Amino acid sequence: MKLQPYCLGSGRSADAIQKALFVISQNRPDWNILPSIKVARDRPIPPMEKDDTKNVIFIANPLALHTPALIAAAKAGFDAAIIEKPAAVNLKQIADLGEITIPVGVLHGYRESWGVRTIRRMHKDAQLGELIAIEGRYWQSSAATRALDPIAPKASWKDDTSLSGEYDTLIDIGIHWVDSACFIAGALPQKGILALSHLNSGLARQLSRCKDRR
Questions:
Q1: What pTM value is reported for the model?
Q2: What value does the mean pLDDT take over residues 26-53?
Q3: Among residues 76, 107, 138, which one ends one of the domains?
Q4: How far apart are CA 42 and CA 30, in angstroms?
Q5: How many Å is the Cα radius of gyration of the chain?
Q6: Which end of the chain is more exposed for a tag (fewer CB within 10 A), N or C?
Q7: What would the 3-class secondary structure string for 116-137 be?
Q8: Into how many domains does the chain fold?
Q9: Do 26 and 88 share a structural domain?
């Protein structure tokens, strides 16, 4: 059996996926991983071989396009899909995922970072004492940029809600943070506290705390 990877995406995540596939193919030649085929956004998927080949698509395009790409991949006849987080950016897309019948895996790249893996190892080796809570902060300014100047030219896909989704950093970076916390702890959280801070030039600072949001 051979494995034919297809890669949809042109950013750093797509590059990392293709490099990882190449490294794996060199280290495990017995897995018969063929060279990756690039798939362009809004272009037809190249014809797939069906003999003894398993066709797997790796999806790393902008966030809001993940669900439509998954649905299209399933309809195109792929045997499986691997997708950069998140699989969906809103409740409608979550419902749409019910259409997908092929196996799907979700990539959480921050799990592979040195810091997260080191903290996880220290926790498993009982070097940190009893784990009571994990606190973290993250910033990303694309939503703030849009709020200050809605008609400014879009600098990247992160500034376009049709590509990034309506919730911006909460979905884009927040998922990384939550997954990293669960990975370190080795379990799902019992409860969480969310604090939202909005600090924009020329606007009053607002801080809201949402306690025990599960």
A1: 0.78
A2: 85
A3: 107
A4: 34
A5: 20
A6: C
A7: HHHHHHHHHCCCCCCCCCCCCC
A8: 2
A9: yes
Whether 202 is covered by a domain: the verdict is no
Strand partners, 5: 56
The two tokens of residue 72 are 């299209």
Task: List the domain range (segments joined by +) for residue 39.
Answer: 2-107
Whether residues 89 and 181 share a domain: the answer is no
CA distance 155 to 164: 13
**Amino acid identity for residue 128 in this structure:** L
Mean pLDDT of 118-132: 92
Residue 165's nearest CA partner among 83, 88, 82 is 88
State the alpha helices, DSSP H only, in the chain: 12-27, 66-76, 91-96, 114-124, 142-148, 161-164, 169-172, 174-185
Q: What is the CATH number of the domain that holds 16?
A: 3.40.50.720
In the chain, the percentage of residues whose pLDDT exceeds 90 is 45
Q: Who's near 25: CB < 8 A, 6+ residues apart?
A: 31, 33, 34, 35
Residue 96 lies in a domain: yes
Domain boundary (84, 107, 130) is at 107
Q: How far is CA 198 from the centre of its chain?
A: 24
Do 3 and 80 form a contact (C-beta atoms < 8 A)?
A: no
